[in-house]
Design brief:
The complex is a heterodimer of chains A (about 290) and B (about 600). Chain A has helices at about 20-35, 70-80, 90-100, 100-110, 155-160, 175-185, 210-215, 230-240, 260-265, 265-270, 285-290; strands at about 40-45, 60-65, 85-90, 115-120, 165-170, 190-195, 215, 245-255. Chain A has about 290 residues and is α/β, with parallel strands linked by helices. In chain A, α1 (about 20-35) crosses α6, α3 (about 90-100) packs across α4 and α5 (about 155-160) runs antiparallel to α8. Chain A is globular. In chain B, the strands form four sheets. In chain B, strands 9-8-10-11-13-12-19 form a seven-stranded mixed β-sheet, sandwiched between helices. In chain B, β4 (about 65-70), α2 (about 75-80) and β5 form a beta-alpha-beta unit. Chain B is an alpha/beta fold. The chains are: A alpha/beta (about 290), B alpha/beta (about 600). The interface between A and B is large, with 65 and 74 residues.
């Protein structure tokens, strides 16, 4: 096992006291070190938001990119060097609103990397506006009376678009979250982990207590994660029962489809773009073809 | 010797296949050929044309007057007969009623029974393209075997039956002309075969020469040809090509791939580029090298999607919030397309900046003859890319990816290299990449990035001077080189061609400009965007300008006339009306 300390940095995270991101960072460090992944061969890709500061607090390679653009950035990195472990991580506003189109298309491409959404149901870094997963009735700066928009269901979206690994966890449960991260990272192909996360500053509805009262473990409840229809029904469940119960754990897992980096014609031949020998490229054959 | 063959047909009726095949036949015979397609943004209906300019010397431009017109439909005669030379040849489908087309008496008319030949030879009507080409070779007195070879190459994969049927209809077209018309011309192959390809293909080959190993794009005319070319043989050429869900994704993917250590590029046109601009700014502050290919077309917005314009320099210069160094390049001939595209990847890595490779519909989709492949030069330079092992990091310490250096370029490492851990960051950062809002560090990092500019200016290409013994000179950039060179032959002015548009070195520009008593800028846009840039950056103003913005490139005769007018009265010229082939492409139902 890689020593978790090799991932430590000299700086302390700058999140609010009690923020769910602390738990997520601890889980991520534990997951990577338990999987024995080399920090030199790990790239944490994030966007913009409170949680997207995470690459700075975990000493591997990282790219803190643009709001909403985690997925294409991660896909470019992985397709250029499939030997790397690539983990995308960012908030619900980042990935489900600004980056919604990429989220729709990532399962189609099925590049082998993991996408983790820190889902706190609110825009936190911009001081409390409605996000795609903000529940109705949560008053905030852009919904001063009531939330006029419906709440998005990212787990169902991931499922219906063909994501072959879909899971959820609660940031307050570090051990379970780390376990879900390990499973997601180990999955071959695009994997999605939705982490329910309290925001102590801007969300007074989805609190630690709120989650603890509602979360139940799918695996303990006997859910069959190889059954797509059952997975989709579980993803729909809280939206049908008014969020009385919130399933966490593995919704769906299917290893039948090979990831893009294994079937892409160039990569399948064992060529790695990042280490291509480009010192003297011969274009003779290309010119000859045009004769 | 120069020959202008114009082929016209309804969209989807084979004008491009005929034109490209004819171009290939003549380049195989050692000629230089320039192929120029025009088409509306439609798949069916509308009017397509393809000009094949055949010359025994370098040719990089369409010309105005044609020697042979092949008319597959009546509109071709209507639209193109005015530009036909006296005594030129019209080769047309005998079933077309040419009354009322305005065809002149002085034109030799060859009525070709295309459908009769197809029926007689029991061939597929789609094969009629080769009947026309057989007839064309008979008209020119060019050996038919050259067409036969082209047919065999093109169809051998589809089996002997298909090859034979195409050969039969081609030969029947050839024989018909030989038997019924007194074709006096004699034209023979003059040399070794030369490659014939589109500008987009030359640019693709250039990028591959430069070590491209990752390309991502979303389809958009006229840039899509690069995506098509690169994806076709991606496994052979060792490049991963991704079609992205949108241009935002395409840009971010390519930047990700570059961060991971591959030479990466993306490509689009103006509308798609608008979506990429946030990524430009990210690449700039994270100092991730990136090449962005931008094939301009007629704007604003959707404009006229399949037509040409040079209007996007300021879009590229203004792309991305904040201030940062960037380089803008614009090749103008096939050798430059290969060399400069290759070099763009060097420049991006040497300075760790965004580099823009500008083309336009005219350059990207025209066909060129590569007559100087043996002179193509390229030397790989990956800049300050880490090689071998790095000094061990102390616990908690990161690699100084953004080290403050004298030349502004910091040593670079990529994932997989031990002790290189850092975060490429869209935030301002310390030398070790950790985010900061410390004022001193902010200023130090801005200054560091800005220090690159001095070296970039040293590295910049000089504007190229083509001498025709003129005492005045026309300044063009990118795609307008070909028309300018042709115009200069008769017009007796020199041509100054810019392939390096930004940043501009005053010394290098003055070296080119100072020899002339007058300078005129000729641009394919309405406001003179490059002229404006030169004035802004260097305070240099031309005596007059030549501009055209109807969707077509400047044509040599127009440029020559414009220079003559400027010499006479000193006033700038705007080419508003075409003196040839002015027609409605888009809506055939509106005639």
């Amino acid at each position: 096992m890689a020593n978790v300390e090799v991932f430590n940095v000299n700086e302390k995270p700058q999140w609010c006291a009690g923020c769910g991101d602390y738990g997520i960072l601890a889980s991520l460090k534990a997951a990577i070190s338990e999987l024995n992944i080399n920090p030199n061969e790990t790239v944490i890709v994030s966007g913009i938001g409170c949680g997207s500061k995470i690459p700075h607090y975990l000493r591997s390679y990282g790219y803190e990119g643009l709001h909403g653009r985690i997925l294409p950035l991660a896909e470019g990195i992985k397709m250029a060097n499939p030997k790397l472990t690539v983990i995308g991580i960012g908030g619900d506003g980042d990935g489900l609103s600004e980056g919604g189109n990429h989220f729709l298309h990532a399962p189609r491409k099925n590049v082998n990397y993991t996408y983790i959404v820190q889902d706190n149901h609110i825009y936190a870094l911009t001081t409390g506006q409605t996000s795609p997963t903000t529940p109705k009735g949560l008053k905030n700066k852009t919904s001063p009376t009531e939330e006029l928009y419906e709440q998005m269901n990212p787990l169902a979206v991931a499922l219906v678009n063909g994501t072959r690994f879909v899971a959820a966890s609660f940031a307050g449960n570090i051990k379970h979250t780390a376990e879900m991260m390990k499973k997601a990272i180990s999955h071959k192909g695009f994997s999605y982990l939705n982490i329910y996360q309290p925001c102590v500053s801007w969300n007074n509805v989805n609190t630690y207590q709120w989650y603890m009262q509602r979360c139940y473990d799918l695996q303990q409840a006997g859910h069959d994660s190889s059954n797509f229809d059952a997975a989709l029904a579980k993803a729909m469940e809280p939206y049908r029962n008014g969020f009385e119960k919130l399933p966490v754990g593995i919704f769906y897992e299917n290893n039948e489809r090979k990831p893009l980096d294994e079937i892409h014609p160039t990569l399948a031949k064992g060529m790695i773009p990042a280490s291509k020998d480009i010192t003297n490229i011969d274009i003779g054959k290309m010119l000859e073809e045009a004769l | 010797m120069e020959l202008n063959i114009k082929i016209g047909a309804a969209a989807g009726e084979g004008a491009f296949v005929m034109g490209a095949t004819a171009g290939k036949i003549f380049t195989r015979g050692g000629y230089c050929v320039f192929g120029y397609p025009e088409y509306p943004s439609l798949i069916r209906e509308g009017h397509n044309s393809y000009q094949v300019i055949v010359s025994d010397r370098k040719i990089l431009t369409p010309t105005m007057e044609s020697d042979v017109v092949i008319a597959v439909n009546k509109n071709t005669i209507k639209f193109h007969s005015e530009s036909m030379k006296k005594g030129s040849i019209l080769l047309f489908d005998s079933e077309l009623d040419i009354n009322g087309t305005g065809i002149r008496e002085d034109i030799v008319k060859i009525s070709l029974p295309v459908n009769g030949i197809i029926k007689e030879q029991k061939a597929d009507p789609k094969m009629k393209n080769f009947t026309y080409l057989g007839a064309l070779l008979a008209v020119l007195g060019y050996p038919l075997e050259e067409l036969n070879k082209a047919i065999e190459d093109q169809f051998s994969r589809k089996g002997k039956e298909i090859v034979d049927a195409n050969l039969r209809v081609a030969n029947a077209g050839y024989d018909f002309v030989k038997k019924n018309y007194d074709a006096k011309q004699e034209m023979k192959p003059i040399g070794k075969p030369r490659p014939y390809m589109t500008g987009n293909e030359a640019i693709s080959i250039g990028l591959l020469k430069g070590g491209l190993s990752f390309f991502s794009a979303y389809p958009m005319t006229p840039a899509t040809g690069v995506l098509h070319y690169l994806i076709k043989n991606q496994d052979r050429d060792g490049v991963v090509v991704m079609q992205a869900e949108d241009e935002i994704s395409a840009a971010n993917m390519a930047i990700g791939a570059s961060f991971a250590g591959s030479r990466a590029a993306t490509g689009t046109s103006g509308g798609g580029f608008a979506l990429m601009t946030e990524a430009v700014s990210m690449a700039a502050i994270a100092e991730t090298p990136i090449v962005m290919f931008l094939a301009q077309r007629v704007g604003p917005s959707t404009g006229m999607p399949t037509w040409t314009e040079q209007g996007d320099i300021f879009q590229v210069l203004g792309a991305g919030q904040g201030e940062f160094p960037r380089v803008v390049l614009a090749p103008g001939d096939p050798k430059e397309m290969i060399e400069i595209s290759a070099d763009s990847l060097n420049i991006a890595e040497e300075f760790q900046i965004p580099v823009f490779l500008l083309s336009d519909k005219f350059l990207s989709e025209s066909y060129y003859t590569i007559d100087d492949a043996e002179h193509i030069k390229f030397k790989l330079n990956r800049g300050k890319m880490a090689k071998g092992s790095l000094p061990e990091l102390k616990p908690g310490e990161r690699y100084k990816r953004y080290a403050i250096t004298d030349d502004g370029v910091s040593p670079r490492t990529v994932p997989g290299i031990p002790n290189g851990q850092h975060v490429a960051s869209s935030y301002e950062h310390y030398e070790d990449s950790f985010s900061t809002e410390l004022f001193d560090m902010r200023v130090a990092q801005v200054d560091k990035r800005a220090r690159k500019i001095a070296k970039i200016l040293e590295r910049s290409y000089e504007p190229k001077v083509y001498s025709f013994k003129g005492d005045d000179a026309v300044v063009v950039w990118g795609s307008q080189l070909g028309p300018a060179l042709k115009a200069a032959e008769n017009g007796k002015f020199d041509v100054i061609h810019f392939t390096w548009l930004y940043p501009l070195s005053k010394e290098k520009v003055m070296k080119a400009f100072s020899n002339y008593k007058a300078i005129y800028f000729a641009e394919n846009n309405s406001t003179g965007v490059f002229e404006k840039l030169v004035k802004m950056e260097l305070g240099i103003e031309p005596k007059a300008s030549i501009r055209k913005y109807n969707g077509r490139p400047l044509l040599p005769q127009q440029m020559e006339n414009a220079v003559a007018e400027i010499r006479k009265n000193g006033k700038s010229v705007v080419i508003r009306n075409e003196e040839h082939d002015d027609f409605e492409f888009y809506s055939p139902w509106r005639y």
